[in-house]
Amino acid sequence: MAREIMEVPHVAGRLCRGVGEVERVSAELSRRTFPFVVVCGRGSSGHAGVYLRYLIETRLGLAVSASAPSVVTSYDRVPQVAGALFIVISQSGRSPDLVAATQAARAGGALTLAIVNDDASPAACAAELVLPICAGPEHAVAATKTVVNSFVASAALVARWAEDRALADSLAALPTRLAGALALDWSAWTSDLSQAPAAFLTGRGHGLGTVREIALKLSETLRLPALGYSAAELRHGPRASISNVTPVLALRQADSVAEGIDDLVQDLRQAGARLHTCGGPAGTLPWLSDSHPACDPIVMLLPAYRAIEREARRRGLDPDAPTGLTKVTETL
């Protein structure tokens, strides 16, 4: 896991340039119109899908829905998706439910796109368009570089598709920022988790996928129940579960949702919560300085990953092979 985290700036470089398959797939999407988009993925790939949803809805104005593969595999119902764009995101591309959902969407008239690390996988073969994330082999069960590259591929695709020059320019600078993020020490946050019965993470907008992804890594690598919530959703009930024994990590990118995150942070701090924050003038964790708000949530993954991996080893846990988990998860 540690070695693969360190590979991220290098393997992300080609995708950040938005050339090759990124350019080809985005050109194909630009030639078409879609009534809506459906995104399909589980686990870390599902979190990349959350990130992609915000990019598509904010840059292209298309409504995005999350697919429920069990509708196809368990309930034997084929969704009506004629004319839509169906995007499956998967590291291995081998989970039967994701493959079945992609096949059903294609049969139902959707244009299907697979964002995968293995472009010869069943999910890739089931789709009409394939966008390889080019992360290379990943051996640790806890995915890191494939997750980052799924986020980067999503941003590169939308930057080209939407002709968003600011996003494309920021992606060009992203490998340098990712390299800088490897030096950020977030151990103050993970050390605070040593006696915690659970942990909370919060953010909003482009940062929500990152929040949920880091929560997953805490659960699978440190065996710690961790909950990632939108800063808005946190106020609708889960806020009551936060106490001085449940640390909170808040991630803030500098865009129109920043004020709402700042307000929540202020409320939690006044209530005596154990709070760690990244981004903005009130951030408590080391940070590079704010840059493009759609790219910063990608960069925030790296110091979190490094801190979690180190904390796992400090506790005598094996972050490369968490108990009960396998590298390829197959569900129906």
TrEMBL record:
Pfam family, one: SIS
Entry's Gene Ontology molecular function annotations: carbohydrate derivative binding; transaminase activity
Cited InterPro entries: GlmS/AgaS_SIS, GlmS/FrlB_SIS, SIS_dom, SIS_dom_sf
Span of domain SIS: 25-173, 189-317
Gene Ontology biological-process entries: carbohydrate derivative metabolic process
Keyword annotations: Aminotransferase, Repeat, Transferase
Origin: domain of life: Bacteria
Stored PANTHER family: AMINOTRANSFERASE-RELATED, GLUCOSAMINE--FRUCTOSE-6-PHOSPHATE AMINOTRANSFERASE, ISOMERIZING
Protein name: SIS domain-containing protein
Organism: Methylobacterium soli
